[in-house]
Amino acid sequence: MTQLKFRAAARSAMTKRIAIVCLTALMALPHAGAAEAVERGSVTNLPLPRYVSIKSGEVNVRRGPSLTHRIDWVFARKDMPLEITAEYGHWRRVRDRDGAGGWVHYSLLSGTRTVIVDQDMLPLLSRPDPAAPANAKLEQGVVARLDNCNTDWCRLSVGGYRGWAPKTALWGVKADELRD
Fold first, then answer.
1. Residue 18 carries which DSSP code?
2. Per-residue pLDDT tens for 147-173?
3. 26-80, pLDDT tens digit by residue?
4. What CATH architecture does domain 115-171 belong to?
5. pTM > 0.85
6. With respect to CATH, is domain 50-112 assigned 3.90.580.10?
7. Are the folds of 50-112 and 115-171 the same?
8. Contacts of 42 (CB under 8 A, 6+ apart)
9. Which of 83, 87, 169, 176 has the fewest beta carbons under 10 Å from its own?
10. Taking the domains of the chain in order of start, what are their residue ranges?
């Protein structure tokens, strides 16, 4: 009789351990239909990271979030896209496509979205189809205004031309970003 009680207790302990392991595994899985947590800026409550552009032709990039901090960089290209990675008061920590960055006053940034072409002689296509005719060819480093984006393509406008380019050839737009 005592041997039966021992087996039942062992089975019960094993069942509890299996239940704990299964519950732990289920908790590690993303919940179906649950929205992923998006980090938000403490000042603006906008998503982080996010893309913006430079409002003026010359922007001082500082080591810290105040005018007393040393200037490390000067961005000298109007409309260049930047990625905001943090906020502190009126200051935004930004980085460019090469990873260079620091703190910029928010008044020097614009919500207008632009991208940098990362592929040399990128065809700007008339529709989001690799077989579509090209409206223009863009050199690497060209800054273009971002219009619409679907899952794989973005519509751009630059120098009087409009057309579609693959997201993979652009910096300044997230791979999963959709824009209407």
1. H
2. 999 999 999 999 999 999 999 999 999
3. 444 444 444 567 899 999 999 999 999 999 999 999 999 999 999 999 999 999 9
4. Roll (2.30)
5. no
6. no
7. yes
8. 87, 88
9. 176
10. 50-112, 115-171
